[in-house]
Amino acid sequence: MVLVYINSTTGLSKAALETVTYGKKLSGGVTVITNGSASNEQLAQLGEYGASKVLVDRSVDGEDPQQLARLIAAVADQVAASTVIFSHDIYGKAVAPRLSVRMNAGLIAGAIAVPEADGSVKVNVFSGKAVGFVKVASAKQIISLLPNSIQPEKTGSACSVEETNGLAGTSAIKVLETKKPEGSIPLPEAELVVSAGRGLKGPENWGMIEELATALGAATACSRPVADIGWRPHHEHVGQTGVAIRPNLYIAVGISGAIQHLAGVNGSKVIVVVNTDKEAPFFKAADYGVVGDAFEVVPRLVEAVKRFKATQH
Amino acid sequence: MNILVCISKAPDTTSKIAFTNNSTQFDENGVQYIVNPYDEWYALVRALELKETIGGNVTIVTVGTAADESIIRKALAIGADEAVRIDADPKDAYFVAMQISSYAKAKGFDLVMTGKETINYNGSQVGGMIAEAMDLPFVSLATKLDVNGTKLTLEREIVGGVQVVEVSTPAVVSCAKGMAEQRIPNMRGIMAARTKPLTVIPAEAVADLSSYVSYIMPNAKSSVKMIDPSNMDELVALLHNEAKVI
Fold first, then answer.
1. What confidence tens digit (pLDDT) does each residue in A92-134 have?
2. Which of A30, A238, A270, A307 has the most CB within a 10 Å radius?
């Protein structure tokens, strides 16, 4: 039996659907444990992605990894799960290591594929510069799946949802405040990302980047220097010290492609680089390159995307 | 405040990544090791800032061999008061966490800090594992940390935003960008580091829970396709028809 933990406080994320799909690929029997406020109707939809049952503890806010580890370990016992699956996002990174110790189960952190025939699982190592095959030595295992590594697949129909409580104990972490920028697509979940760097010359020039992102339905990101000098907010900084992302499409405008930046984006499926300097190192990591002035190329690209979108309806 | 900072070695970011022994081992030939940047820039420097404002003691701990003493001296030069090396050549995050938690349990630290992950294995595992083994609260990926008596106020990254949380000591915190700025050790620090106490303790017998069986290099990108800057319709068509991403 496979147990999948998802955080459903803000509804069903794509990462949640990916982890349930992943669980289904490993085992015929998938139980989902979740906390939070998603409705029973929403949670029942997880059956379409392979869940046979969803257990929800509505008394747990999901902010204390210790509480979640207690809850998940107790449910894993109840359903005799030999594998527990997380998304390798902020929740997986906080809870999976705790659960590993609690269950004495090896943790495969940041899986990018289903297990190989020998039971080993691919993970990115050296900030995406290599891939390792990890195997656990324990009877039970925990796998955290890197977001956007597999696509959600509908294979079944709605499943039953049951409430559970009393397994998690009390929370040691008190949430004082939550700040979320309104309306924007969270970077780690975005499938399309438009990013820009110092080549844009000043924060006042970001209008065309936002316009391109809007036309594509993409999130916006930036390079480290741009975040450090305050042109863009820190949460947009992608790279080794910022957020690591792996969208389907990453468009980099006016970013030279330093190794630390590449470390955060080299998991992207397709990379487009726009730069005036044809020697920019980023072109070596790109699938498509445009040598040209961003101030001419980006507005043209916005128009081209709009023309394309108009033909799609 | 009595703080324990966990540090790990990591290959310098410019190191050539290659594997040896039938692709089962990282090739250390010519690799320069540094203190893992997240451990150094964020966890250690914030610990030192806290000590400077409220007093206390900063101990660093690493699980490593005698060859790792250069990174220990570097951390001492930046300002840690003392160091502990648990003598082993670790292969598994669980092994590391068991060694550190076993040492820390007996010492009564108020706060245990780690970096958000290492830049070589990127697992983000050790902090949470230490917390569970010590039965302490864990705040992961914190970008800000302030102390008021026995209360810690922290900011942490959440999906698409930031959250402010409060927790009581003792606790374990993993540290991300925003926590502090890199400090370059000065000559006085480097001299002082030579005489600061470094205790070596034997590792306990702990079985690894996981291992790397082999490595591969990702497929090299086929060469970049250059697009005429005046023809963005072509780029959009390629992204739709060839790359199938829009």
1. 999 999 999 999 999 999 999 999 999 999 999 998 889 999 9
2. A30
Match 């706060």 to its residue by tokens.
Answer: B111
CA B68 to chain CA centroid, nearest Å: 15
pTM (two decimals): 0.90
User: pLDDT (tens digit, 9 = 90+) per residue, B87-101?
Assistant: 999 999 999 999 999
Tally of structural domains, chain A: 2
Chain A: closest CA distance from residue B123 (Å): 5
Domain containing A208 equals: 187-311
**In this structure, are residues A178 and A153 in contact, taking their beta carbons and an 8 Å threshold?**
no
Provide the pLDDT confidence category of residue A50 given band limits of 50, 70 and 90. very high
d(CA A224, CA A237): 6
Q: Note whether B11 contacts A177, CB cutoff 8 Å.
A: no
Determine the Cα–Cα distance for residues A256 and A276; give it in Å rounded to an integer.
10
Between CA A167 and CA A79 the distance in angstroms is 14
Asked if residue A108 and residue A191 are part of one domain, the reply reads no
Task: Note the pLDDT of residue A205.
Answer: 96
Closest residue in chain B to residue A264, using alpha carbons only: B119
B17-27 residue pLDDT tens: 999 999 999 99
* Mean pLDDT computed over every residue of chain A: 94
For A191, nearest residue in chain B (alpha carbons): B245
Residues A159 and A199 in one domain: no
Domain match, A219 and A289 both? yes
Residue with tokens 């069986």: B213
> How many angstroms separate the CA atoms of B84 and A6, rounded?
38
Tens digit of each residue's pLDDT (9 = 90 or more) over A285-294: 999 999 999 9
Rounded to the nearest angstrom, the gap between the alpha carbon of residue A312 and the centroid of all alpha carbons in its chain is 27
CATH of the domain at A40: 3.40.50.620
pLDDT the model gives residue B172: 98
- Cα separation of A87 and A143, whole Å? 8
Bond into B170 cis (ω within 30): yes
- A219 and A120 fall within a common domain: no
Structural contact between residues B22 and B77, judged by C-beta atoms closer than 8 angstroms? no
- Kindly report the CATH class assigned to B2-215: alpha beta
% helix / strand / coil in chain B, to the nearest 5? 30, 35, 40
**What span, in angstroms and rounded, lies between the C-alpha atoms of A140 and B194?**
45
Cα–Cα distance, A123 to A132 (Å, whole number): 5
Report the residue from B17, B153, B226 with minimal CB separation from A130: B17
Residue A184: pLDDT band (50, 70, 90) is low
Residue by residue, DSSP assigns A41-91 as: HHHHGGGGGT-SEEEEETT--S--HHHHHHHHHHHHHHTT-SEEEEETTHH
